[in-house]
Amino acid sequence: MPADERIPARPSLRERRRATATREIVEAAERQITEHGPAALSLRAVARELDMTVQALYHYFPSRDALVTELITRAYDDLADAVRTAVETPSDEEPPPGVVLAAEGYRRWAIDHPERFQLIYGTPLRHYEAPVDGPTTRAVQRMAAIFERELFAGCTAEQLARADVPPLSPAFRAYLEAPGALPAPAGALFLNAWGHLHGLVVLEVFGHTDFLGDHQAEIFRLSIHTLYQDLRRRIPAEE
To answer: How far apart are CA 224 and CA 54, in angstroms?
Structure first.
């Protein structure tokens, strides 16, 4: 059998037990967040639910921050999966632009999981600092890549560099022009679109648009559609 076709070794019994215990700890912590909100997360309560000591829990997560990082990463990954699924799910109707589908997937996940949405986008947990360029950052980048693809589908780098935006300050342009990033004008458009989309979802999740009743989904689609059309008008045709 060729080396690249060898069957991977099965995890040992100890590794399987550790994976099971880790999963149970994370799931118990997610239940606690769902029931009591992110600020109420307690390692002691998680350990109590699983009939284990806090000291035993530390064998799997050496600190509260390590557990919080895992919870945030999982929330972002689940949200990114919901966004991707929304874009890729076939429809019998004429679908709207992909970015509208992505935004609606984002909105639905946030409405269905308000406490986990609050964990990643609400008031930061006291004394928690996400690891620099760690798993939470990579999870955010994965989701952002979906929106970037749908917003700028079919556009060349040269077109994006000539996008019509107000003059950018030298400092902001330098910030946007990181290696591998979008051209600065497109980066500015992306951040503007993201702020608009996310702001609408935050208002709804935290109850500030309840007065719209059953019309909230329609208003959201209209807003994202209009936002997308305006953004695409700012990108010049290919020469």
So the answer is: 46
